[in-house]
Amino acid sequence: MERSGKKNNSIKKTDSLHIISHLNTKIPMKRYLIMALGGLALLAIQGCTPKKTPPNPNSMSLRLELFTKDVAKTAAFYRDVLGFELEASEYPTYQPVKRGNVLLGIGLLDKLSEAHHFDPGQSEIQFGYGVEIVLEVPDVTEAFEKAVNAGASISETPKDQPWGLRDFRMVDPNGYYIRVTSIH
Questions:
Q1: pLDDT (tens digit, 9 = 90+) per residue, 48-62?
Q2: For FRET with 17, which of 41, 59, 128, 174 sits at 20 to 30 Å CA-CA?
Q3: pTM, rounded to two decimals
Q4: Is 3.40.225.10 the CATH classification of the domain at 63-182?
């Protein structure tokens, strides 16, 4: 842009007002759009795109996988009772569900190989034995009411715990034990 005979290569906040003020000139709008798109393309070519932050080598995430005999029923439970959203999946035997930072992968038990730790031939073993799925929510009462209204199997109604949190407990359609608790 030229200002009072000097060439200025930097763009300031006031320049956008300067450009807008020229919209009333006789230069067609199409030309302004072409100039703007050309400027954006030049910025991209020159590497003025946002830089990606490298992953933190100490970071970790968690995806808990629940194996079931009925993927659709289990996914519907987590969606309807606990407010999870169904994520895209290319496989009818696996359905990820997500809410906030919690990701659950719901997989078909019968599709596990016999070499898998959870051998599908051992149907006598209780699902989730020794595991308690703990979900932290901002409003335990609201989560409880939603679960009851959706017909969830409630094990314990909401109560204040000695450790200072409030929670309730329920079981999903497969027998997985879930504690819904306040955020500490």
A1: 555 677 777 777 778
A2: 41
A3: 0.64
A4: no
